[in-house]
Structures are given as C-alpha cells and as structure tokens.
TrEMBL record:
Top-rank taxon: Eukaryota
GO MF, any single term: hexosyltransferase activity
Residue span, Glycosyl transferase family 28 C-terminal domain: 255-351
Sequence ranges assigned to domain Glycosyltransferase family 28 N-terminal in this UniProt record: 59-199
Listed name of the protein: Glycosyltransferase family 28 N-terminal domain-containing protein
GO terms classed as biological process: carbohydrate metabolic process
CDD domains: GT28_MurG
Keywords tagged on the record: Glycosyltransferase, Transferase
Keyword Cell inner membrane: no
Amino acid sequence: MASTTQFLISLPPKPPYLLSYSSPSKPRSINITCCLSIQQARNDQTTSSGSKALNGLRVAFAAGGTGGHIYPAVAIADELKLVNPTSELLFLGRPNSMESTAIPSAHFEFKSIPAVKLVRPFFSLRNLLLPYFLIKSITKCFTLLSKFEPHLVVGTGGYVSFPVCLAALLKGIKVVIQEQNSVPGIANRFLSLFADLVFVAFNSTVQSFPRKEKCVVCGNPVRLSLKNSVSKAVSRLHFFPWLEKMEGSSEEIKVILVLGGSLGANPVNIALLNVYSQLLLEHENWFIIWQTGVESFNEMESLVRSHPRLLLAPFLHSMNMAYAAADLVVSRAGAMTCSEILATGKPSLLVD
C-alpha cells in the first residue's frame, strides 16, 4: 500500500531554496509557495516532478554532540536523497566525535569545525575564552559554507549547530532548525529568533519559542534505514553469529535491546549492571544487546563479565539490525528514541 510523503518547498527563480516563509497575520500559519506531494510505493519510486523540483539542491546540516541531534539530520538527508539522488548534502560537526563516525557511516559527506561548548554555570571561568573560540569556529564555518554554497542550512540543536547557523545567517543563507525535544536547548531557542522556520515534534514545544508564528509541528523524522525491512533471524546472526550452529528452535530465543543513550545514561547502565548476570543465569534463551553510550563504555566494560549471550558496545551504528533483532527495548525515554520505537513497533520499557 502506497504512503504519501509531503515536502514543502519554495522555488523562486534564483536561487532554488528549499523552504519559504512569510510573516502571516495569524499565529503558526504558513505561506506555502509550492506543496509537492510525492506518492511513495514500496519500491520507493518517486515522481519525476519531485526530481525536477529538487534538482541541484545543496543543503548543509549542523548536527552533533549526541545521537538525538545527529540522527534527525540524517533522517532529513535520507528523505532529500530519496526525492532526488542528485541533491548535494554536507554535514558539519566536531572532529573525533560521534558525528565524525556516524555521518560517514550513513554515507554522507562530513567536514569538521572547531568545537565551541558553553560550560555551565554560564559565569564559569572556563567560559572566558568562549568568544575567541566562537569567532574561530564561525570563521571556519563561513569558509566551508562559501565553498559549498548551500541553498539552505538545517540545524538540529546542540552547541555544534550554533556557529554553523550563525555563519549561514551572516552569509544570507536561509536557516531552518529542527527541535526534537519537548523543551528546546539554548542554541535552538536563540537561533529561532533568526531562523526562517522552526520544526518541532510536539504542540507544547511551540510555547517555548519566543516567535511562535515560525513553528511548524511535524513530529520527529526517523531514519530511512529503520523503515527498511530486516528479518529478525538475519539481525540476530549479525550480533550473535554462533546462533547459526545452535540447536533447537529460534522461536524460543528472546533478545533484549538495552539503550544506555548515545553518550551514556547512568541509571539505565547501573540498573542493568546489577541484574544482567542473574538474568542470563536464570534464562538460558535470553540474549542482551547493550549499548552503554560512548562515555560510559570503558567503565562498564571493566565491570561487566564476558558472556556469550551478552554483546556490549559503546554505540550501535546498525540500529536497524538492533531493533529488528529485539523482542524488548529497554531505554531512557529520549525524544528520538521514543520516535524510533514507535516507528519500529517494538515493545519497550522506558526510564524517565
């Protein structure tokens, strides 16, 4: 059965921007220059009008810090590539970071920029050099954007998006931001004052932005890879190859996917640390895939005993396989994780 995906695009003669917004008289109404409806069948066919509309489009993404900021940008990029493979997409983020590995693994171009992180409390001595590092980062972003010449810059929050979007505004490039959470962070709250549009996941989030008329409630974007059908059997063999030699029915096997956040959610990790050994001992057909988070991995690895039915990883890049393999998901109740669990239809135990 075909599904309908709607893309809002504005097509002025020069240059071809992705989105257009004009200040309306009523709150949260949008002046749509062109509404392009694309019928997507199971074979992901798109109409020729969609291809012509976005032909030659260049979009830069400012995404980094955590998976909650990275993967919404990847999901948007996936859809743009689906509409027209000729679209040119560039991701900007920190070097030696989660995005520096996650973005190339999603097959998108990545360029690094100097990190600028606001330390809390704001009046900390560590923030004294913040203006210098911010100017340095904006200058680097300005140079990269000048070379790439995007029609649009998409920021998905976090301190990585701040210098990129500021550089785009200085260059006169259209900027849109996407907020995944119910309450926006400092970067998105400030950038919303100058952005052309603000895409939010929840109706209540609109009240958190000073210029509510710019907000569009559209839910959270989910990566295309999570929508692709992967068999449970193949996915389980991906994580536990020796299952192929295991005797007995595979129907009896139960896989628990534990997500300790992209950086690390201590309550989830500590809770599992206290019970994983007993669970595996009492249930011989249970398997655990445990994502500890990058910053918590070394500590957890030093405390967890090796077990053939336990897979410990700092971060899972093949999340489509992980969700497909799982019978139950145990996770921190992050906004993007909740959206992905809903999209995959997996039973879950969420920790607030």
